[in-house]
Amino acid sequence: MKPLKNDTYLRALMRQPTDYTPVWMMRQAGRYLPEYKATRAQAGDFMSLCRNAELACEVTLQPLRRFPLDAAILFSDILTIPDAMGLGLYFETGEGPRFERPVTCAADVARIGVPDPEDELGYVMNAVRTIRRELQGEVPLIGFSGSPWTLATYMVEGGSSKAFTKIKKMMYAEPQTLHALLDKLADSVTSYLNAQVAAGAQSLMIFDTWGGVLTPRDYNEFSLQYMAKIVDGLTREADGRRVPVTLFTKNGGQWLEAIAATGCDAVGLDWTINIADAKRRVGDRVALQGNMDPSMLYAPIPRIEQEVAGILEGFGHGPGHVFNLGHGIHLDVDPAHAGAFIESVHRLSRPYHAE
Ligand code: 1CP
């Protein structure tokens, strides 16, 4: 395996000195890129794209050909685990993900098994191996999973949700059923992420997109506790290097200290928290990833640069910042604005890393 040419992202996650602030974008491969739409059309549907290692590799590399990003992220989806559990994932055009057989009761939970990552999820590991080979050491590859709570919302609601009434009903009326489901998901996520590391992932990220809809008490009991258990069970070294782990709870700004205490290396921030406050609270324990509002990419380029400058100033001098959007890039963003964003992070961050 070729040695890494650009390890800025890994160094920043370990709060080691770098020449500039590394940057990548959540959902950097996707529908805002015309070349993604073309490959997706070639594959047919979204899951066929995920199941085809060559095409999944192609769309992973597309944003890196356009922009000097400091990391690649595996092209896949968080819903591969529930799909491998037999729930029957499909995508309704324009409607997002759906499950044919949602989880409704204790008997449904009892029927679910922990998927074998090299069997039912073998296509994901093939994609990781292919991408790692094709990256040729240019930048590190990020592997990822959804958090148990976030995966459970899709499994119990039967798809995307706004009010989360079905899973909250289960949480309050039958908490032991939900805990049994979250336990199986935690085991599944742990073995899935460890298999991604064995296949070549050099860093891991857990997306807790819906943790922020919980009360503080329930966040601890139904989301954070399971992420902490996963962090405990992860392989933290590969090829003689640390494999850093980033936890991202959207809308989780009020729980930063608790998230940092799980033993993760970095905490992802959405745009509803000031990064200077976040750094003051946890910056001596973990690295921070974030946190520009993805909608800022609709603004004229000088306004984007001004926002980047403000976030860099908020984090201030020294290592430990990975620049990112506070959530995924929107599908109607002009790729030129994404390019200007990335270029401005690199250019404007250098003074913050000078001796
Ligand atoms: O082409 C298409 O029409 C499919 C759109 C799409 C894409 C491009 C989906 C369906 N998933 C993905 C890829 C994806 N999903 C990546 C790829 C890597 C990259 O960042 O470039 C990643 C990391 C994800 C993770 C994901 N999927 C999350 C967590 C992150 C987040 O955005 O909060 C979630 C919640 C999902 C579920 C999902 N899958 C797809 C959609 C449209 C959704 C969101 C549905 C919802 O809002 O509830």
TrEMBL record:
InterPro entries xref list: UROD/MetE-like_sf, Uroporphyrinogen_deCO2ase_HemE, Uroporphyrinogen_deCOase
Identify the residue position(s) of the site Transition state stabilizer. Answer: 77
Give Gene Ontology CC terms. cytosol
* Family annotation (Pfam families): URO-D (PF01208)
- Grouped into one coarse class, the protein's main location is cytoplasm
List localization entries: Cytoplasm
Which CDD domains did the record assign?
URO-D
So, what pathway does this thing act in? Porphyrin-containing compound metabolism; protoporphyrin-IX biosynthesis; coproporphyrinogen-III from 5-aminolevulinate: step 4/4
**Catalytic activity line of the entry:** uroporphyrinogen III + 4 H(+) = coproporphyrinogen III + 4 CO2
Q: What EC number(s) is this enzyme filed under?
A: 4.1.1.37
Q: Which GO terms describe its biological process?
A: protoporphyrinogen IX biosynthetic process from glutamate
Can you give the residue ranges of the Uroporphyrinogen decarboxylase (URO-D) domain?
22-31, 142-158
User: What does the similarity note say?
Assistant: Belongs to the uroporphyrinogen decarboxylase family.
Name of this chain's protein: Uroporphyrinogen decarboxylase
What is the native source organism of this protein? Answer: Oceanimonas pelagia
Upper taxonomic lineage? Bacteria, Pseudomonadati, Pseudomonadota, Gammaproteobacteria, Aeromonadales
